[in-house]
Structures are given as C-alpha cells and as structure tokens.
Design brief:
Keywords: DNA recombination, DNA-binding, Endonuclease, Hydrolase, Nuclease, Transposition. One of its GO terms (biological process) is transposition. Pfam families: Cas12f1-like_TNB, OrfB_IS605. By secondary structure, the protein is α+β, with helices and mostly antiparallel strands. It is built from six helices and 13 strands. A six-stranded mixed beta sheet has the order 8-7-6-9-10-13. A three-stranded antiparallel beta sheet has the order 1-4-5, with no helix packed on it. Strand 2 and strand 3 form a beta hairpin. The radius of gyration is 25 Å and the shape is flat. It binds zinc ion.
C-alpha cells in the first residue's frame, strides 16, 4: 500500500484508501512519501495512524563520553557522572480524579449487571448488554482517559531522559533488569517503577541503534556494595543506607552514584559479565 499526503492542503491531511482525505494532528513534520499506514483505535475513542516512512538517519555527534546508569526507586536514573532524574509518580498526580470515576464505574457496572440479569430472568425479547448503558459507558471512557493521560505523561518524560542520555554519551552501560528485580523489592511503587525501567531500556536500545551509539547491559551483582574507588567489598547494604564511607580508602560514597560507577566499569572493562550489547 502506497499513500501520499494530500497535496490539496496543508500538512494536516492524509489520504487513506477507502476512507478518503482524513484530517490529523502531528507534533512533527511528516515526510511526503508514506510507505504504509496502520490505523489504531484507542480505548478513549481516538484514532491513531502509525506511519511507516523513509527518512534520513538521524545521528548525534560523538561526544567521547561513556556513562554508567543505575536505576532506582526514588531517583529513576542515576548516572556515574552524578546526574539524577527523579521518579515522577504521574499516577499519583491524577489519582484523585481517576478514583472519582473508578468509583462511579464500579457502581454503574453493578447496576447495569443487575438490570441485564432482570432482562434475562424475564426473557425480554431484546436483552440489553453493558454497552447499552450510557452512564456506564461514560464512566468507562473517563477512566480510560485518565489512564491514557498518565501513560502519555510518563512516556514523554522517559523520551526526554533517553534522548538526553543518547545525545550526551557514546556508550551507555546499564544493569540487566532480570537480575535487578530480584535484588530490590520495594512494595507499592515496584510495579510502576519496573515498568518505567523496562520501557527505558527498550527506548535506549532502539535510540542507540538509530543514532550510532552503544548500549551495554551488565549483571548488577554486587554493584552497590563494592567501592568504585578501590574495589573494597563492604558487604551487603540494605536499601535504607543511602551513603557510606569505604573502610578501605576512606572515600565517602553516594550509594547510587557509586553503583553507577561500578556499572560503568563493568561495561567498559574487558566485560566478563556483559550479557548482551545492542
Ligand atoms: Zn574504597
């Protein structure tokens, strides 16, 4: 399927087979030649067109810099150079409004189910289904709207972080998440933080590949207990220890920055523990 942006108008229309000229919104300029379009309907009733286009490969200049990153809970990303990106709980920011509609959704679903059961019991000719209840549908849409908004905000934040990391560094070393999940359990925010970590790794993988940078994945074994200055093994540090002084060399460490430095060393040394590299 070969499609073209409509010539008749500005860059806000795309011509699709069978559907004709459609108006769309896009944050970036779309190239003239489109190879294929996939149209997707989101739970909030918005149509998204995923375009496959040809474009000039974007490369960031080489900076000669290498960075190790530790992934955390309070801070999402901690760099071996001391840079920190905090975890932002987008779910909490909208939690109250979402909860308002979640309560209504639960109540209206229950009510609708009762009425459906009544239809069934009385052998009504055209029994209603859930989607026939307008108030239920409205509440369902509102919950979906808030979920979509949270996802968009979170992804936007992750895109900004990963673009900056890829732009500023030639080599990025991060931990293998499979091993990390077992190491650090953190009740409530665990699921959300885990999801951000996974998404971030995915973004770093393809952005590094696009821009000619390298991503190295290492096993995080002992990275938070070994001194990055002298290699002294201080034993296991519990999660509440945020900083410590190395008995070997006397260096005072920020727990996370020290871990990021160790990760960088693992990824850029001979790499015995390198798991994969993208
Ligand atoms: Zn030391």
């Amino acid at each position: 399927m070969c499609l073209q942006l409509s010539k008749s108008s500005n860059k806000h229309h795309v011509k699709l087979p069978k559907l004709g000229i459609m108006r769309f919104k896009a944050g970036i300029k779309i190239p003239e030649k489109i190879k294929s379009v996939t149209v997707r309907l989101s739970p909030t009733g918005k149509y998204y067109a995923v375009l496959l286009v040809e474009y000039e490969k974007q490369t960031f200049n080489k900076t000669g810099r290498q960075l190790g990153i530790d992934l955390g809970v309070a801070d999402l990303v901690i760099g071996s150079d001391g840079i920190k990106f905090p975890t932002i709980r987008f779910d909490k920011i909208l939690a109250r409004k979402k909860h308002y509609w979640e309560k209504r959704l639960a109540r209206r679903r229950l009510q609708a189910q009762k009425e459906i059961a009544w239809d069934k019991h009385n052998k009504v000719l055209n029994p209603r289904c859930l989607d026939d209840f307008k108030n239920y549908k409205k509440a369902k849409l509102m919950v979906a709207e808030y979920n979509e908004k949270m996802t968009n905000q979170r992804n936007d934040y992750l895109h900004k972080i990963t673009v900056q990391l890829v732009k500023d560094n030639d080599v990025i070393v991060m931990e293998d998440l499979k091993a990390k999940n077992l190491l650090r359990n953190h009740k409530l925010s665990r699921a959300i933080v885990n999801q951000s970590w996974r998404e971030m790794r995915r973004m770093l993988e393809y952005k590094c590949a696009w821009c000619g940078k390298t991503l190295v994945i290492v096993n995080p074994y002992k990275t938070s207990q070994i001194c990055s200055e002298c290699g002294y093994d201080d034993g296991k540090h519990t999660l509440d220890i945020r900083d410590w002084t190395c008995p070997g060399c006397g260096h005072h460490h920020d727990r996370d920055i020290n871990a990021a430095k160790n990760i960088l060393r693992l990824g850029t040394s001979l790499g015995k523990r390198v798991v994969t590299s993208a």
